[in-house]
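Wed. Picked up where I left off yesterday with DUF389 domain-containing protein. The coffee machine is broken again, so keeping this brief.
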Amino acid sequence: MLHLRVIAPAELRNPILNVLQREPGVTHIVLHPNAAVEPAGDEITADIAREAANDVVERLKSLDVQNLGAITLEVLDTVLSSAAYHAEDAADGDAADAVVWDELVARTRDESQLNVTFLLFLCIACLLAAVGVLTDSPVTVVGAMVVGPEFGPLAALAVALVRRRMSLARRASAALLIGFPVAMAVTAGATLGFEALGWVELTSTRELHGVDFIFQVGPFSFVVALLAGAAGMLSLVSAKSAALVGVFISVTTVPAAGFAVVAATMGDWDIAAQSVAQLAVNLVGITIAGVLVLAVYRRLQTAKESGGRRSAGV
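Structure written out below (tokens, as returned):
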């Protein structure tokens, strides 16, 4: 279930309570009159079955609560209440299949911000990938896959395309279009530094055998990117973080960027180009898969809402 907290002017008290009391998937409604100081107004809380959250939030937004006050949602891990069980049973659908769109937009917006933390993670991931290439170590390359933060902006881009949030699309695109060149430039400098220190001898990437799969672009590169993107979006929607780790390990997004840098440093421009192509295939494939998954969820939600209106005789 989700815990809802609403802060709103006192004149919206009855309309808000009416929205909550009319929804079978809502329970544990609590009113604190004039409890809010900034912005001034009432505090109203309730527990909502995940399946009912979209309808409730949309009705509250139609009252302009988000501008006059605030709407917050919090995931509840454990709820021991017969009323809560009845609310979940009364809600239409299954919690695991419910997409709370505002929650998804907020989550992906936070993970797609171009900030120092994002750049540091991306730089570290590219550096790990470069070290994995230089040492022909698949294990190190896998570590780079796990550390890479690029799925956040890709997921945000998919959400932005489906929900038509252009500001979110610009934010995610900026994180990718600025983040990768910066990380690759840092990696190039570090690679040349490793050579200057005598830690590695740069000859050719053509002699590598343990990590040569990174730059080998083929039809399965796109298939894997699609499957990984679909699994990643499903993990975000269902909040299954364990599945997301598997997504990181299955795609060669960051390793391709690292390989391109090392190959370019060694003068293997054809391999560097193939690595960049692998990077592009992964980025595009993951985004397309995310859009398709969300489009299916939106279609199912629309069909459910239409069925509900027909059942109500509307």
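Quick read: The domain at 2-97 is CATH 3.30.70.260 (Alpha-Beta Plaits).
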